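(Structure overview)
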Amino acid sequence: MNKSIMIIPAPAVKRQLCGVIFSRIMSRGKLELAAAQLLEFSAADVKSLTALVPQAEELLPVKSGASMIAVFEGENASEILPQLAADIEQSLSCRLITAAAGNSRFLQALALIADRENLLTQAPAAGEERTLLIIKPENFRQPSVRPGAVIDMLMSLDLKWVGCKVHGMSIDEALEFYGPVRQALRSKLGSKIGKQALETIEKEFNFTFDTAEAAKIVETAGNGFADDQFEQIVEFMAGKRPAEVDPADYAKPAGAKCMVLIFDGVDAVAKIRTILGPTNPAQASGGTVRYDFGTNIMVNASHASDSQESYARESAIVKVNENKLSEILKNR
């Protein structure tokens, strides 16, 4: 396994090509996306990069908008990525920059540039909202078109893409992020499942519990089932259940990979949630992310904040203004 880097210059990002480029690289090259970041290059940035990769000055025009830096990894990534880039440049009429992990000086310069705040702007413009979307771990189980295809669908919206990162949730983050779901599961499922458990026991043993004991069984069985469902969500998003991880390691990524994207715009929350479709993919209509890529209520391709208040809470948990890309480049 080795790593290789691609810069998608601002003109290609403006043409909304990031999604299709990711899809081709991940599906045809069988490469995994290890990191990604949107960056606006300054004149000094371009000058330092041009000294190491001559085409940088031509391909990274200053004040042209954000470019995308992506790190891909896989078997022979340093050989495969340039080949795929050449095909993409020809078929999509765009220009790309690739660099293998062996180009140490270029990667060091790029790491210093990337070691900044992750969001392009610290707040949305007046009259606009900021919202968060997470491309869930099932889309990263194996290299495929899925992450790129989801990004491509989002590009159809009249929104500004202001940040992204590849993220591994920790147990702490998953517990906090989905904490409100635990009580909701108890409220929605607890009583129903608890009563079913009570009825099954009484029927099996032809015995009727007194009121107090019956209530204990309903509560214990119902809450136990709901809590197990909650732990399945934590495992799905983080990679492991809390019981499988030493509490001392709760703050470390637990093994699953997702991608966090941040968008600004008028009615951004509603627009993102509309393109996602209902939480249950079975209820989603064609042309939505969950219709195309969802399986069930939990394995439903993506999560999106449902309000500005939710965005504030969720974005703080997954630390949207931090990105490990510079760290990955430094420790390639």
User: Anything to note?
Assistant: The chain has two domains: 2-168+257-330, 173-249. DSSP finds 14 helices and eight strands in the chain. Strands lie at 2-8, 32-39, 67-74, 97-100, 129-135, 160-167, 258-265, 302-304. The chain has a mean pLDDT of 93.
